[in-house]
Recover the amino acids of this structure.
């Protein structure tokens, strides 16, 4: 003997199953008039720019060109052998209106932040960590939208005079 409650619940479950089955079957057919689904554009991989620094206090390049607004991955490697305390290197790209000599002078006091002064962060477009021998760092950034020459330098004490260059935005 079935109770009325149980019998009603079974009828509702059976009807619900039929509705879902009907909906599923009608959705399985191919609709020729539907527009193709829009696909999201593939993510753009950043262009890789590789630069090295050595024990002779030289960057491997002193100039590189980028497109305005281009996404870049800067890969910086210290290819030297001397210890970090004596010959550490970083690469800091500054805004085009920044004064590289004044920035390098301020960096001398920024020992705690690897010679990248926190109070001048508004002048920095991108900066790597200070690297010891055979170390590598990567930083991804977007090139400025304004064309011009953007200086880059190593801010380890005494290096900026020789380890400098320009990122040219076109």
């Amino acid at each position: 003997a079935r109770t009325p409650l149980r019998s009603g619940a079974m009828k509702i479950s059976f009807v619900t199953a039929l509705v879902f089955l009907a909906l599923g079957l009608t959705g399985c057919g191919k609709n020729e008039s539907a527009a193709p689904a829009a696909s999201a554009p593939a993510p753009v991989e950043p262009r890789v720019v590789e630069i090295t620094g050595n024990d002779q206090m030289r960057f491997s390049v002193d100039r590189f060109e980028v497109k305005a607004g281009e996404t870049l991955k800067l890969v910086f490697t210290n290819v030297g052998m001397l210890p970090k305390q004596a010959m550490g290197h970083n690469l800091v790209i500054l805004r085009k209106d920044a004064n590289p000599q004044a920035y390098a002078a301020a960096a001398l006091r920024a020992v705690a932040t690897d010679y990248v002064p926190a109070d001048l962060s508004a002048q920095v477009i991108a900066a790597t960590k200070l690297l010891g021998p055979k170390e590598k760092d990567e930083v991804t950034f977007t090139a400025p939208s304004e064309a011009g020459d953007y200086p880059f330098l190593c801010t380890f004490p005494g290096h900026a005079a020789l380890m400098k260059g320009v990122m040219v935005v076109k």
Notes: Confidence is low (pLDDT under 50) at residues 2-33. Strands lie at 47-53, 63-66, 71-78, 92-94, 124-127, 136-142, 148-153, 164-169. The longest strand covers residues 71-78.
